[in-house]
Write a structure and sequence with these properties.
Length: about 110
């Protein structure tokens, strides 16, 4: 998803940047970014306007369900149901069936419940 947002920024503002996604409170979405706030100074624009432009462009992407702007320019993204289902199909490259797994637990005081 970072790559998708980077492409949108390059298309809209002709600038390359690094996009960092964070996990907000679930009521705001699956992911959030403050990239519009980071771009405000180099572009000399209001971060909220930058965020609105990016969000409008992102709304057309099929892997994204809902895209909203909050506060001074945070972009909140919710994945589409289809994107979530596709991510569940991804499996680790190595097959670990038949291997022994050791799980250790630590209890600082085993005599206290």
């Amino acid at each position: 998803m970072e790559h998708t947002i980077q492409e949108v920024i390059a298309k809209l503002f002709n600038i390359e940047t690094t996009v960092q996604l964070t996990r907000p409170d679930p009521k705001f979405g699956d992911f959030a970014t403050n990239v519009a706030l980071q771009l405000a100074k180099p572009l000399g624009k209001n971060p909220r306007e930058i965020a609105e432009a990016i969000a409008e462009e992102l709304r057309g992407h099929e892997e994204l369900g809902e895209v909203s702007v909050a506060g001074p320019g945070f972009i909140n993204v919710t994945l589409s149901d289809q994107a979530v289902l596709e991510s569940l199909k991804v499996r680790p490259a190595t097959n670990r069936s038949g291997q022994t797994v050791v799980i250790e637990t630590n209890c600082p005081n085993p005599f206290k419940a």
